[in-house]
Amino acid sequence: MNLLLDAIRWVFDPANYGGPNGIDTRSGEHLALSGLVLLIAVVIAVPFGYFIGHTGHGRGIIVPLSGGVRALPTLGLLILVALNVGIGVVAPVVALVVLAIPSILAGAYSGFEAIDRRVIDAARAVGMTEWQILIRVEIPLGLPLLIGGLRSASLQVIATATLADYVSGGGLGHFLFLGLQTNNYPEMLGGSIVVIVLALASEGLFGLLQRLVVPAGVAARQPKDVRLRPVRSQTALG
Amino acid sequence: MNWIANNLDQVGQLTLAHLAIALPPIVLSFVISVPIGWLANRLRWSRGILRWSSGALLTLCVLLYAIPSFPLFVALPSLIGTGLRDPVNVVVGLTLYGIALMVRTSADGLAAVDPDVRESATAVGFSGWSRFWRVELPLSAPVLLAGLRVVAVSTVSLTTVGAVLGISSLGTLFTDGFQRNIPAEIATGIVVTMAIALIIDAILVLVGRLLLPWVRATSRAGGPRTSRSVKQAVVT
User: Fold this and answer.
1) Is the pLDDT of residue B231 over 50?
2) Which residues from chain B sit within 8 angstroms of residue A199, using beta carbons?
3) pLDDT per residue over B44-89, tens digit each?
4) Is the dihedral of CA A89, B98, B223, B38 positive or negative?
5) Which CATH number does the domain housing residue B31 bear?
6) Chain A neighbors of B232, CB-CB under 8 A
7) pLDDT tens string A78-137
8) C-alpha R_g of chain B
9) Rounded to whole angstroms, how far apart are CA atoms B228 and A37?
10) Which domain holds residue B160?
11) Is B184 at the interface with chain A, CB within 8 A?
């Protein structure tokens, strides 16, 4: 317990702020790295996921592939890339993008697949083109699950970005590796506490976003209490 | 390729060390999580403080998963009184992660059992205990299996992180390869780790087919509500 108190004292010690190795600077690096990674992963994964979800094509290839990517040890990929492109921030970005893609991809296509097929048939029946179905029906209805995918990707990336400093990629991992080398437990634990706070902040933010993006019409129909779920005849109508 | 041929013994030994660390957390987290998930699901249906505690339990699991693996492996020795380079740290840490993932999946899987089915089981005379084993568990088994597969694959891959602390596993090939600048060594570590993960995954799928023959038969008949909650459980 004393160790934990020391760690909390370390987090709030003004001497640990400011300068290139301050907690504030390192947190900023950590968040910038994670944000950049998520942005790149979204740009790659969302169009693919939407394509799979909309057409149903490629599911047989992409799903096992992204399962395989989950098995890929991030530390190994990070080090392998670092040996090829040199130490710095590039290797962590590549390794973390690969880590983030499966969750976002799964969120994108399962968001589409979870939509009641009758809704899409109805959209087609009232004369919507495929693009209109995509933009005005599938994307809004699939958004909560996509944000759910982003949420778990963000958590994983923020937690795993601590390894970035193993190849001098910066971020909060600095305190962990430095603490490990100098046997400075308060610094190691303090660094972890900051990472945990960032991870939880991301959870809270995406959780909130996930609620906000549920379209008003859908939210109105979902009963708050599970015991008040609609009876069968209503389900058949809706 | 030369590197592998010359270091086959080392790779074999590290593979065994890796399995010794990775397998216990997969089994332990499953055995521990299902009862907790059941409890969380039961509390979800109650009122007041109990209902709140269900939410708190699930939030605690998310919190647990938010702890980065590497600092957790560092912090555990001081909490459970092991040495800094003791593999037990990694086993305990990975079990905690497994629980964090699996409790949520178990709760969601058990919640996805149709309430009508649950009530029918009670109506035909199942006690709470036998209803769990003979109705709820078999019906939520596909979701539990999907969760277990995620836990297994991520556990095998996370085991490598222990190498940063000097705990022997296939991750040792990464740190050693980095220090000595041998890309082939790192590539070998990645390939063998992935192979182990995929083999364990394949075994789980096979076991699932043998133990859950009704899944394929009923999957086409499953309603949209069931399939959606299953998908959500797998995504999150």
Assistant:
1) no
2) 66-68
3) 777 677 777 777 888 788 778 777 787 788 778 777 878 778 889 8
4) negative
5) 1.10.3720.10
6) 110, 114, 145, 148
7) 999 999 998 888 999 999 999 999 899 999 998 998 888 899 999 999 999 999 999 999
8) 20
9) 29
10) 2-235
11) no
User: What domain count does chain B have?
Assistant: 1
Residues present in chain B in total = 236
| Contact assignment for B190 to A77 by CB distance below 8 Å | yes
Task: Report d(CA A162, CA B204) in Å as an integer.
Answer: 31
CB spacing of A75 vs B197 below 8 angstroms: no
CA gap A210, A145 in Å, rounded: 8
Give the C-alpha separation, B76 to B68, whole Å. Answer: 12
Domains (range + CATH), chain A: 2-237 (1.10.3720.10)
pLDDT of residue B178: 92
Q: Please count the other Cβ atoms lying within 10 Å of the Cβ belonging to residue A218.
A: 11
Q: Please name the member of B70, B193, B232 whose beta carbon is closest to the beta carbon of A76.
A: B193
Hey, which residues 192-211 in chain A have their CB within 8 Å of chain B? 192, 195-196, 199-200, 203
Residue A79 · residue B186 · CB < 8 Å: yes
Confidence of residue B219 (pLDDT cuts 50, 70, 90): low
ipTM of the complex: 0.79
Mean of pLDDT values over A173-190: 87
Mutation target to probe the B interface, by most B beta carbons within 10 A, among A3, A70, A79, A154 is A79
pLDDT, tens digit (0-9, with 9 covering 90-100), for B142-165:
889 999 998 999 899 999 999 988
User: Is 70 exceeded by the pLDDT of residue A220?
Assistant: no
Task: Encode A173-206: b = buried (16+ Cβ within 10 Å), e = exposed.
Answer: bbbbbebbeeebbbbbbbbbbbbbebbbebbeeb
Report A:112-151 residues touching B (Cβ under 8 A).
113-114, 116, 145, 148-149, 151
